[in-house]
Structures are given as structure tokens and as C-alpha cells.
Amino acid sequence: MAGKRVLRVKNVNNSSEVVDASLGEVPELSVHALQNSDDIPKDQESLDLLVVDDSSADGNHFDLIQKVRAVPNAAFVPIIVFSDSKESYEAGLRKAGVTAPFFILQIATSKEEFQNLLAQILEIEFPNSKIVAKPHVRFKADVDIINAFISSTVSTLVTMAKCEKVEVLSMSPLKAGEELRFDYWASIEIVSKFFDGEMGLGFSTETIKSIYSKIVGSEGAVDESAMPGAVGELANVIYGGTKQVLNSKGHLLEKALPILNLIPTIITFDKKNPIIVLKMRSDSGEFSLLIKAFERKD
Q: What number of CA atoms fall less than 13 Å from residue 59's CA on the CB side?
């Protein structure tokens, strides 16, 4: 079994012994203490789980959890929280914009129940237990997938639209109550061995006009009726480049279904299927790249 990387916010309470004992039973687990945002790994290694022993000690740790999820390799990392009030803590997570997958356990949760959840999330087995590893709900939009989409988007706009500079301005999950509006939108639903989801491209009229004029080599007026097709073609090319990179790493993207909206599109928060929003800028204007991970039960 490959090593699994776990971040842990530890407080002294009734759940600490359960967490200590369980994490200590599996030598392949690499556990790192997390006390403040300075302890959050900034590298590109995989992060498999965040465990918060107790929700009530220091402001419920919402800010710290948000900062962990803001790191590209932790955008969809599962979270286990021990809380004495599951309903209010879940409401707090939602309000803070923290999306699934997260699991909230009672502070008095038994060792067997906690280990069963660990086995499902991390696909591990405990030497002294009959608990068998069985995948639960997995979100596999990891750093490889996000970076592949970014690099393919950049290379596509540089090559097709002759953009001299394309960069990521920000990356964050779409939060409850937020919505994004696009004049032109194209998306591709994706099925693969490790990741089911959707990639979307959203443009304002001004930005896609500038990009399209560069694609066709026209400095003057452009045919607006052709721009929806141009957005769809960009999405297809970006997906093709992403697929080539990811399949070389064993992700095995199996099929894709293009979806083209010819009218202004509104993207809203989806609590079951988290959406990562990458706001990007080129010399033709700003646009958005969205990556959605579908809830997956294997």
C-alpha cells in the first residue's frame, strides 16, 4: 500500500485517544501536526486526509480548514471532524464555503467506528482489526488533474489565440450563495478511472470576441454567430491536451460529453459536487476555468 499523508489538528479531549490509537496502528500513514496556517504544506505532494480532533476549542477551526482547502493539492481533501454538535458544525462549514467531502463524528465516537471510516476514505486496513478497506465516497480532482487543465488552457490560448500571456489570478471553491454568470459557456463531462467530473470554460462577450478575432486573424468586426462554436472548440482542444497529459500518468480518461450553451449561463453552488473556480487572465481579457468533481461511490 502506498503511503498516505494525513494532517491533524490535535486538541486534548475525549476523541484524542481514539485518533492517537487509530493513526498509530498503520505504519504507512504519515501524520503531520497542524496548529496554524504556517504548518500547511505548500508542496505538490498528495494530501489524503485532514483530521480535526475537536471543533470547539479554537473558533471551530473554520479558517484553518478553508486555508487547507485553498492549497491546490488539497482542494478536495476529505475532512473528519469530531464535534459535540454535528448539525451546527455542518452549518458552519457550509457557511464558510467548505464543500464535501467532510465527515462529522461525535466526540464520543468509538475506535471501531473511526477506524471503519478511515478504512473507507484511505483504503487502508488495520493489523489488529477485522475492518476491511472499502472505498466510500471519493473525490479525485487532485493536483495532477487541476494542473493538467491549467497547463492545457495556457498552451491552447497561446497557440490558437496567439495570447502572449495567460495566468491564473485566483483559485477557490464556489461557496454557498455565490453564482457566476457567463455570456458564453462550454463544458465537458468527464469519466475516468479515478475522477468523474466536469470541466467548464466561461467568457464575457468582450473577452471571447478578442480571443476569436485572434484565432481567425481579424482585427475588425467578428461574426458573433460563430463565437459559441469557438468556445466549444477551445473546450475540446483544452480537454484533448489535458487527456494526453493525464493518461500518460495513468488516470485513464475514458470518455467525454461536450455541452455547449448558446445563451448566458449561471453557475451556482452545488453542495454534493464541489466546484473549483480558477479565474484566469490573458492579454485578451479575463475568463474562468471551472472544475467540478462529481460525488462518486465505488
A: 9
